[in-house]
């Protein structure tokens, strides 16, 4: 990073923490206290989880800092791509046959 | 590997060696993400294969899950504060926040072990059904990582006490910090795609 962190109050950490708590309880509330359909609920809470994970990466883990910041970002984007291939791919391949027959 | 030290950077980034170690750890985390992706994939395929055994709603206790989540989330925050203090060259603050982080992590583990005991008492063991096999492997792998993290961070704290803040100990602390935040990221997805998904009406 270009500058030393000498601030006396970790404001971005506090914001990250508060937002994480809000997202967590919002997800729980939507999943458990609403009558939306299963599909809609999963899309909403899945999105909230992705946002929260992104916050951890950028606000707590300093993903993009340092001279390797760009490499880290590409590394994580590739990891996310692998997650989608492995998780969505597995579920798709191993369950789609059952629905059709 | 050069001895060039760039003192304009935070301690953990000052030498080429330490920068490479941190980059290498990010690559390792990429591999860890793929490891957990395989476990989430298995769980996603098998999560309704109850084989006549208990279902999600029979065993999940939302209150305990929320406590676990808040414990781990808070520990991720306190770990962030620990690194923040490290960058202010405040060794005492760093160690204090690390110890708080580990106490929260231990609280999480305590809850998880109790949860497993509670499941076993309800007849929900790894052998009961495909759902429970995949559940225990996913949760157990995460819990094993937390256990390892507590042991690892304890050793880092001992080094900090013995050697103080140097580029090397700062880099080691920063890396255990990354690892700890990563475990919280994995938990966010367990919370969402295991517990909440299982409890949606």
UniProtKB/TrEMBL annotation, chain A:
- Reactions mediated catalytically: 2 a quinol + O2 = 2 a quinone + 2 H2O
Q: Name one GO cellular component term.
A: plasma membrane
Regions crossing the membrane: 12-34, 40-61, 73-94
Record keyword Chaperone present: no
Q: Which InterPro entries match?
A: Cyt_c_oxidase_su4_prok, Cytochrome_c_oxidase_bac_sub4, QoxD
Which Pfam families does the record cross-reference, listed alphabetically? COX4_pro (PF03626)
Q: Where in the cell is it found?
A: Cell membrane
Keyword Transmembrane helix assigned = yes
Q: Which GO terms describe its molecular function?
A: cytochrome bo3 ubiquinol oxidase activity; oxidoreductase activity, acting on diphenols and related substances as donors, oxygen as acceptor; proton transmembrane transporter activity
Documented EC number(s): 1.10.3.-
GO BP, sorted A to Z = aerobic electron transport chain; ATP synthesis coupled electron transport; electron transport coupled proton transport
- Which keywords does the record carry? Cell membrane, Membrane, Oxidoreductase, Transmembrane, Transmembrane helix
Q: What is its main location?
A: membrane
* Topology term for the membrane: Multi-pass membrane protein
Give the similarity note. Answer: Belongs to the cytochrome c oxidase bacterial subunit 4 family.
Which PANTHER family does the record cross-reference, listed alphabetically?
Answer: CYTOCHROME BO(3) UBIQUINOL OXIDASE SUBUNIT 4
Q: What does this protein do?
A: Catalyzes quinol oxidation with the concomitant reduction of oxygen to water.
Give the protein name, as stated in the record: Quinol oxidase subunit 4
Q: Which organism is it from?
A: Cytobacillus oceanisediminis 2691
Automatic annotation (TrEMBL), chain B:
Top EC class of this enzyme: oxidoreductase
Xref: SUPFAM superfamilies: Cytochrome c oxidase subunit III-like (SSF81452)
- Say where the protein is mainly found: membrane
Xref: InterPro entries: Cyt_c/ubiquinol_Oxase_su3, Cyt_c_oxidase-like_su3, Cyt_c_oxidase_su3-like_sf, Cyt_c_oxidase_su3_a-hlx, QoxC, Ubiquinol_oxase_su3_dom
Where does the chain cross the membrane?
21-45, 65-84, 91-111, 131-161, 173-196
* Membrane association type: Multi-pass membrane protein
Tell me the GO molecular function terms. cytochrome-c oxidase activity; oxidoreductase activity
Which UniProt keyword terms apply here?
Cell membrane, Membrane, Oxidoreductase, Transmembrane, Transmembrane helix
Report the family membership: Belongs to the cytochrome c oxidase subunit 3 family.
Full protein name? Quinol oxidase subunit 3
**From which source organism is this entry?**
Sporosarcina globispora
| Taxonomic path | Bacteria, Bacillati, Bacillota, Bacilli, Bacillales
């Amino acid at each position: 990073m270009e500058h030393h962190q000498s601030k006396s109050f970790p404001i971005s950490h506090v914001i990250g923490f508060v937002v994480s708590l809000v997202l967590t309880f919002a997800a729980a509330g939507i999943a458990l206290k609403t009558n939306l359909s299963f599909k809609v609920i999963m899309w909403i809470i899945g999105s909230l989880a992705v946002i929260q994970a992104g916050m951890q990466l950028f606000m707590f883990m300093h993903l993009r800092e340092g001279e390797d910041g760009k490499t880290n970002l590409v590394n994580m984007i590739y990891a996310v791509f692998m997650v989608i291939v492995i998780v969505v791919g597995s579920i798709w391949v191993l369950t789609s046959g059952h629905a059709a027959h | 590997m050069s001895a060039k030290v760039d003192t304009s950077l935070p301690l953990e980034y000052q030498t080429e060696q330490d920068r490479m170690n941190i980059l290498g750890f990010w690559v390792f985390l990429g591999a860890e993400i793929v490891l957990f992706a395989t476990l989430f994939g298995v769980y996603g395929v098998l999560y309704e294969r109850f084989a006549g055994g208990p279902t999600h709603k029979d065993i999940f206790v939302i209150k305990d899950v929320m406590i676990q989540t808040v414990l781990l989330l808070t520990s991720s925050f306190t770990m962030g504060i620990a690194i923040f203090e490290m960058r202010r060259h405040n060794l005492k603050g760093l160690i204090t926040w690390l110890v708080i982080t580990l106490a929260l992590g231990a609280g999480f583990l305590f809850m998880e072990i109790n949860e497993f005991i509670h499941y076993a008492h309800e007849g929900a063991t790894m052998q009961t059904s495909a759902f429970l096999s995949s559940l225990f492997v996913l949760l157990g792998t995460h819990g094993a990582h937390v256990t390892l993290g507590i042991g690892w961070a304890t050793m880092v704290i001992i080094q900090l006490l013995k050697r103080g803040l140097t580029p090397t100990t700062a880099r080691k602390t920063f890396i255990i910090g990354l690892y700890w935040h990563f475990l919280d990221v994995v938990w966010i997805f367990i919370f969402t795609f295991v517990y909440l998904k299982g409890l949606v009406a």
